[in-house]
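User: I'm curious what two different proteins look like when written out as structure tokens. Can you demonstrate?

Assistant: Sure. I'll show them one after the other, since each token string lines up with its own sequence. Here's the first protein:
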Amino acid sequence: MNTLLDKNGLATSDIFIYVYNVNPVTNEYIYSTYEFLNQGIGLPAYSYIEKPLPEKAGFAICRGESGWEYIADFRNQVVYSIETGEELNVTELGSLANNVTIFKPKTAFDKWHGSSWVTDSEALHKLTIVQIKEKKYQLESIAKEMIEKLSDAIELDMALPDDTFKLKEWRKYRVLLDQIDINSPHNISWPLPPAK
């Protein structure tokens, strides 16, 4: 024990002394203060006279049972669940849990394989096919609606001068949409719709 304090941690004389304060919950060093202690008075709660370790990137300085120690500090860093890929924020001191990683998945279809993310190509392909089907259906619906409107106008002798041409262009467009092979999503070249 320091000669300024006795074996019970009480001041041996009236003294000014630097003390190093810790968070009462985490024991993390937070700041130092210059204190006056009357003889027979102890240190303020959660404070120590031993100087903390120097700062070290990626670590917090904490007071352990045997003195100052470095504890891994990932607080305020984003990590990712290796089970779901979900983004999480670290709020406590210490090493990362075994079910998280600092590496961000590249797609929503990545699965963790030991030390890295691997994209589930089959699941990604299935979603791409579903999205292409939806887009194709929407475009075919628009084409169908335009063809019906133009056909009605022509059939009822209410067509504008270029409606017959427009009808033919919309029908061609619908055929081109129908010819799209949704199973080859990377080779799709969507046709441009005719003017309305």
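Here's a second, unrelated protein for contrast:
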Amino acid sequence: MYLFKIFLAAALLTVFCTSLAQDVQLKETPENVILKNEYLTVTFNKVKGEIREIKYDKYANILGDNGAGYLMGPKFSMNPSVYKLIRKSPDLIEIAFDHFGTKNNLRYTLHYIIRKNTSGIYCFLVVNHKASNPPGEYGQTRWGLRADERYFDYHLVRDSIQGPMPSKSDLSDGDKVQDWTFKMADGTIYTKYNYADYIEGRHVHGMAGEKSGLGLFVIQASHEYLNGGPTKQYQNVHSGPFLINMFKCGHFLSDIRLDKTDGPVAEDWTKIHGPFLLYVNKGKNVTDAWNDAKKQSVKEINQWPYSWMNHREYPLNRGIVRGTIVLKSGPALANSMVVLAAPGSDWQSQSKDYIFYTKTDQNGNFEVKNVRPGNYTLYAYGGNLLDQYVKNDIVVKPDSVTNLEKQVWEPQWNGQTLWQIGRADRRTTGFKLADQKRDYGLFEKPVADLNFVIGKSKEAEDWYYAQTKRGSWNIEFDTRGPFTGDATLTIDIAGAARWPIVEVWVNNTKAGVLDGLGNDASVYRSAVAGGYYQHRQIVFPSSFLNQGKNIISLKLAKVNPKGGVMYDAIKLESH
């Protein structure tokens, strides 16, 4: 009874404290609109659709005199915008800025929501095109926040991706090497691309101050609106200081991608991006602010989809897709990626629709929660397989479970496996230098020529994360045979930068060419794990193979400076 009274008193105290929280407030002037809750005050310019000030704690404006929060993309900015008050209550105020891009024929409506009991402000974007208008250009679309460098001087992306920001004066004293890459006075290289990262397993990034303890973070409770899926890398935060939420990101996408969703939008089309939370906090130090932001991200994830959202493009009633994937040979597809995306095209290049993903457990079971109603294709990859599973016509209904039960995957088989280099996971995992942090200039370390002996050489010591110099990487192996059909060399590419060309030679006979690999900017923008995944195969007569010793050579015949090929896995099969 005593414990019950304590519990009841605590519950009543929580309700009482919540009720005492200040109602959200709105104030308008001819030029500005101001939103306020018990934590912060945010001032917007009505015409530009920009955040101009954020008042927090004792700080009059953590953005500084030249700071701003704004949306920009190809051939448009939000200036001029039409301001609208969408809804207002004691607990929540929603405003929006509407802009039609006369140069790209798309309508952008940028929403902000301030809520009681939240140390931050939510933001989401609705992009719309009407078929009656000329085709629209839906390219890279970025929301960014430029803040005061007196208060923010530290990048925070993951526990393993963090570091101090050089000041603007330090950057101006440095020598520019390439875009947003500088050689500093002390000889070190600073580049914003060292703080790019995969979105998989990451829902918060931001910046903080080593002296101020202030933190500014983007918290993405869901990745469903982000293009590219789990293998996509995003730009996050860089010196300036500048915090980014990419609604649609073009970084590390190849210029040869098969899907043309980045091309003109001709049809009637609407997509909602977000909401994300711009979270503001203060701790004793950077670590304190970071740990608090991570805790807040867990709270946001658990609330998704947000019950307080009220938009026709944001369904609250969602579905679940579950099932089990097993290989035809018997074992389950364990700890592998399952992706729900639009049908008919490469999911890693999709951007106009929504993407959901999860991983299978040890028994191949999976469950994708909070899926928007619609029609999807299921894709799966993993299990050290140089292939992917595809199942079409997945229908998701509101408040329903789509049970796919057991899915049997029969991977492509091209004969007896003679050998494989690398573990197929769409990254450079296990190769030399692949365990390094992102670092501009790492591409200089791989050798031009190497000999890798199957059964003797070690991937972590003898095969580099990238082939970046003209030369020959030779694979030596023995075969007994005899083989009477074709041989297939499958080469899964984790990334390719600056249009490299690789010739494939089998015992001094040219068997094929890896051409048209394009440019995903991976190598020269500090990527170590990969860029845009590609699946290639070279088929040749097995008579090219000797009884006994053989050499397959990957000759990098052409590569532009700072370019190259990043291999995922290479497998030789023969009949």
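A detail about the second structure: Residues 146 and 242 are 5 Å apart (CA to CA).
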